[in-house]
Structure formats: C-alpha cells, structure tokens
Amino acid sequence: MASPTFSWGSKVRQFRTHLTARVAPAERAALVGWLTPRQLALFDGMHVADKRHGLDVVATLRAGGSTDEDLLLAGLLHDCAKGPSVGVLPRVAWSLGEAWGPWVTSAARHLPGFGPALDRIRDHAEQSAGMALAAGCSPRTAALIRHQADPADPVAGELLRLADEAN
Fold this sequence. Notes:
With 167 residues, the chain is mainly α. It has helices at 8-20, 25-32, 37-44, 48-63, 69-77, 88-100, 102-108, 114-134, 139-146, 156-166. The mean pLDDT is 91.
C-alpha cells in the first residue's frame, strides 16, 4: 500500500518532466548575473532534469513572493549531489520504495548500477548541502538544503519543501 503522502499524479508528472526536461539558453544565461562562477559550475554539473526542477522550484518561490537569496539558492541547488548520472529508473525505484517500503529499493539494488544511484538519492540532501557550502553558498542555504525533506526552519524550510513537492 502506498504511503499517505505519496501521490501517483505527482510521480507521473515528475517522470514525464524528467524525460522531457530542457533548460533554455536564456534561462541558463540569466543565472550568470545571479550565481557566482562556482555556484554556476555546480548548476552546470546537474542532470538536466534536476536543473529544470531547480529552476521550477525557484519560479514557484518567486511567484509566492520570495526574495530570500538563501532560499532561492537552496531551491535551485538542492538536488545538485544527485549528479548527471542518476537516471530515471533508479529514481522510479526510489519513489516506489517511498510508497511501498524499503523492500523495493533493497530489491532494486541487485540491478546493475542501481546501488550507487540509490545511495546518491538517499544521501543527496547532506551531500548537496556540502557541495553548496564548497561553492560559496551561506551556511543558511546549506541548512535549508540539508533539511529539505524535514525542515528545521519553519518558514523558509517549509516554503522550500512545498515548492519542491509542487515541482
């Protein structure tokens, strides 16, 4: 049985978005005036689906009136540690594991290449926070990223969680 917080509609939308994700040259160019070179390199190292997702999270935050620089950077970079190599199938296995229990991801680990990809997904919040710090983001940005699924900051953290779930 699926977890009460699991939404098939949301997961199907994420799957479709992952397969069709694009970042327009103008969107990438707009980041040059906002990010430092190290932050831009972090963005450039992400899978195109994670880049698209980050841009969409930022758009959702801005549409809600947020101008908090730390929050916006967290929204853009929160999945950076997944890297370019975590494909759609391990992400599907992870989502099914969230819905139906850890036996799904345990079984998926036996598929070639799934173990390291599932580890990256599992550890991405902590690793992304460290990468953001190394790229010159503030400790607050890193904390927002680190606690993205279970916000420690009741306002900004919750805004990030909701924008992440909406996209």
